[in-house]
């Protein structure tokens, strides 16, 4: 069986718009790397084609598929990558009609039936976690077996769409081997300036999956139970990244890394006792209400230089509507504590939340400034399929579009329409608001000097930061009108 796994060709321009493309992050498709290593462990021959990072066009893809031939092709699909995946599937079936096409990832997981109905070139959808499911699909194909027995898939049978019983989430994450970075062009990935420290290569290490919280805008593809890799396994992966890939920084990824305090403290202790903190510094994302002073102290000692917090709004009423479950006072307290331990902060905010007024949007921007993180990111609210927000917006008739390419939180910088605009606001206003938020946040002397200091580390970094400020200057005129 020859297997190809594809990250479809979605360019940075398509993701962030022409002005912001040079600032976008492009990181490893970890889902494909996990599936590939699992299949390799089962003795299969697998390739990964990351057409996005390689900047491939559809023509390049066609040529690639003509040059080699595969029994099964698996494509990963976020909602924003819908068309990219659809076009890839078209080419797959044009070049090689007998190749079996499988899709997985957040979008088909949320909408398996619709996706199969919409995309005729797609044969099978993997719903949820993909390692065992893809293995069973391959094995079933090889043995001409029965697809109705595979948990966690949707597929076509005659002219009907069949959705099988769900696959339970894997409890023992260590049963998945270290992701197959050897199949990826690792030197091509880079994270944003605000997220890196010394170079932009910053691989992701997934330490846990699953989250019990219920934020209305979030699609929890890994379910509500927190499951983590063993400490030994995480240390092994970190050592591999230092020794084989010369990584000097990593992003420790989990839906909420600090949910289980004992786990995080033990991980930090192991990083310290293995002296990995002398070789690697790391970042992570976390939730305000799972952080305390002991954790921060230990994280700092273990080499954590930055935490990204999802604050979402500066208005308590809106935080309650989106079921964020945190209070503004808590946010201020934890920001102060994090700064006290000299850990840099990135803060995430959402604009255009349901029922948000113009004044409240400005309150959020002011709150962000008051918190004064090293970086603030303002994105527009998008109701992704499978989220509570999606059901709310769909049921209230406020969903403006089902053109999935528009489901992009960077809509302010792009030409397409916005899929959702909360009542009483306009598309134009929200677009401008996103730019204004960045403008107001960044165009302050202290942020300017912070970035200037950072940019002195290298000339390419300096050029990028300068160009960021120049881009922001172009929006000054409109800012005065709002
Ligand atoms: C890191 C991250 C990013 C990174 C990099 C993402 C990437 N590699 O492309 C950055 C910061 C760049 C990013 C950007 C965006 N992200 Co993001 N991101 C994540 C995050 C936190 C982790 C992703 C990850 O590595 N997961 C770990 C791997 C192992 O899981 P996985 O990729 O899902 O794969 C598993 C299964 O899905 C399945 N599977 C996946 N593909 C396939 C394919 C086949 C064939 C099979 C069988 C199975 C299968 O099996 C895999 C193994 O179990 C997730 C949240 C989350 N918990 O997943 C959000 C998440 C994926 N992001 C999300 C969003 C919305 C975005 C943006 C669209 C935001 C925007 N700009 O508007 C962009 C789009 C970027 C793009 N590539 O198009 C949403 C997706 C919702 C949706 N319906 O698409 C998520 C789920 C966040 C959320 N909780 O709502 N993101
Ligand atoms: S946003 Fe974070 S805390 Fe909220 S449900 Fe999603 S993963 Fe959990």
End-to-end CA span: 59 Å
Q: Care to count the β-strands?
A: 15
Give the radius of gyration. 22 Å
Class of secondary structure makeup: alpha/beta
Ligand names: cobalamin, iron/sulfur cluster
Strand content: 15-25%
Number of domains: 2
Give the biggest sheet: 7 strands, mixed
- Helix count, DSSP H or I runs of 4 or more residues: 18
CATH-wise, what's the superfamily of the largest domain?
tm_1862 like domain
The rough form would be described as: globular
State the strand order across the main sheet.
Answer: 2-1-3-4-5-6-7
Query: Could you name the ranges where pLDDT drops below 50 across 5 or more consecutive residues?
Result: none
**Helical content (DSSP H or I, runs of 4+):** 25-40%
Explain this structure to me?
The structure is a single chain. This protein is α/β, with parallel strands linked by helices and 482 residues long. 40% of the residues lie in helices and 16% in strands. The protein contains 18 helices and 15 strands. The strands form three sheets. The protein has a seven-stranded mixed β-sheet, with helices on both faces. Helix 8 packs across helix 9. The termini are far apart. 44% of the residues are buried. The structure holds cobalamin (B12) and iron/sulfur cluster. Iron/sulfur cluster binds next to loops.
């Amino acid at each position: 069986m020859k297997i190809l796994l594809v990250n479809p060709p979605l360019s940075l321009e398509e993701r962030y718009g022409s002005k912001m493309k040079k600032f976008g992050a492009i990181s490893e498709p970890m889902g494909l790397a996990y599936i590939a290593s699992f299949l390799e462990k089962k003795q299969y021959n697998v390739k990964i084609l990351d057409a996005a990072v390689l900047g491939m066009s559809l023509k390049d893809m066609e040529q690639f598929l003509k040059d080699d031939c595969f029994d099964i092709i698996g494509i990963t699909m976020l909602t924003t990558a819908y068309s990219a995946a659809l076009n890839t599937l078209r080419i797959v079936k044009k070049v090689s009609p007998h190749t079996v096409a499988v899709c997985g990832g957040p979008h088909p997981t949320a909408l398996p039936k619709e996706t199969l109905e919409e995309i005729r070139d797609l044969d099978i959808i993997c719903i949820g976690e993909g390692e065992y499911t893809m293995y069973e699909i391959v094995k079933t194909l090889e043995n001409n077996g029965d697809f109705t027995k595979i948990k966690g898939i949707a597929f076509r049978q005659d002219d009907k769409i069949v959705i099988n019983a769900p696959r339970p989430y894997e409890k023992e994450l260590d049963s998945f081997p270290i992701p197959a970075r050897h199949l990826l062009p690792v030197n091509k990935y880079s994270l944003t300036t605000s997220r890196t420290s010394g170079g932009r290569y910053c691989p992701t290490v997934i330490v846990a999956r699953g989250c019990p919280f219920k934020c209305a805008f979030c699609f929890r593809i890994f379910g509500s139970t927190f499951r983590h890799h063993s400490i030994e396994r995480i240390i092994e992966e970190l050592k591999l990244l230092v020794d084989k890939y010369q990584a000097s920084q990593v992003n420790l990824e989990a839906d909420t890394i600090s949910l289980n305090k004992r786990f995080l403290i033990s991980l930090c202790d192991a990083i310290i006792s293995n002296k990995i903190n002398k070789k690697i510094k790391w970042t992570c994302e976390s939730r305000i209400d799972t952080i305390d002073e002991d954790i921060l102290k230990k994280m700092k000692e273990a080499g954590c230089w930055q935490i990204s917090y999802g604050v979402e709004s500066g208005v308590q009423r809106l935080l309650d509507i989106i079921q964020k479950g945190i209070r503004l006072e808590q946010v201020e307290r934890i920001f102060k504590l994090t700064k006290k331990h000299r850990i840099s902060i990135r803060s995430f905010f959402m604009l255009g939340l349901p029922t948000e007024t113009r004044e409240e949007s400005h309150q959020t921007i002011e709150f962000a400034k008051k918190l004064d993180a090293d970086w603030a990111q303002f994105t527009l609210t998008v109701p992704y399929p499978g989220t509570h927000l999606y059901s709310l917006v769909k049921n209230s008739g406020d969903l403006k579009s089902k053109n999935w390419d528009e489901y992009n939180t960077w809509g302010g910088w792009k030409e397409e329409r916005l899929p959702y605009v909360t009542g009483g606001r306009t598309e134009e206003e929200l677009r401008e608001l996103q730019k204004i938020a960045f403008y107001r946040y960044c165009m302050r002397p202290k942020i300017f000097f912070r970035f200037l200091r950072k940019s002195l580390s290298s000339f390419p970094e300096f050029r990028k930061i300068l160009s960021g400020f120049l881009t922001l200057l172009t929006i000054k005129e409109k800012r005065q009108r709002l």
